[in-house]
């Protein structure tokens, strides 16, 4: 079953007894089969709001609102804000791919953010580089319990299917990392650019284009969030081709496997 309404008709917060979980990705391949799974389980009610389609239903028994942020920090911030205000989500999880920044992070690895930072924000000398002016912060934390549950789901996926995935996709056996993810409105695709990121932010594990914007909006509204990224490339000169093949051939498999285990875990469980 599928139904569609405009935003003006959307009143999920007026009727829902349990606040839904918001699930976001930038691109359709990064969501895997999530919307189809929702369609099969509960039917999907699609609400169009701010030029995006928000799919409302339930996945593995969890009421969810699933949507595509599209690419970049503004897109992520706008979508996060709509999930909070128009859909009254209880928490937001972002799933997708990222470029590896740390030399220890390889294609096929998974990074769960504990903090996120905008690597391209720079109002110096008025404010320190990386600080969000007037908020006095550069690093935004994810929710500890949500990130713990997401990382546990990733660890289970790696234990159960990591070796098979590596053989199927020709990658190393995946590892799960936790730490800093940096975001900016750039696709990082040169040895010089990723080297500059490493120099400026030695603890950065991965780079993408949305997560820190989501984390800032969630911080400002007191909504828990978590971000999981599978490494599609190492942000160097090979990044465009590595990214495209990973996105089309592998990203959905990881996303399906991680989200299924995440949604099946009891809340509060690591
Ligand atoms: N997402 C995936 N790979 C990326 C890269 N190299 N730069 C920015 N975002 C990315």
Automatic annotation (TrEMBL):
InterPro entries, alphabetized: MTA_SAH_Nsdase (IPR010049), Nucleoside_phosphorylase_d (IPR000845), Nucleoside_phosphorylase_sf (IPR035994)
Pathway where this protein functions: Amino-acid biosynthesis; L-methionine biosynthesis via salvage pathway; S-methyl-5-thio-alpha-D-ribose 1-phosphate from S-methyl-5'-thioadenosine (hydrolase route): step 1/2
Any GO molecular function: adenosylhomocysteine nucleosidase activity
UniProt keyword annotation of Amino-acid biosynthesis present: yes
Keywords for the protein's UniProt record, in alphabetical order: Amino-acid biosynthesis, Glycosidase, Hydrolase, Methionine biosynthesis
Superkingdom of this protein's organism: Bacteria
Annotated ranges, domain Nucleoside phosphorylase: 21-263
Pfam families on file: PNP_UDP_1
Protein's name in the database: adenosylhomocysteine nucleosidase
Species annotation: Paraburkholderia antibiotica
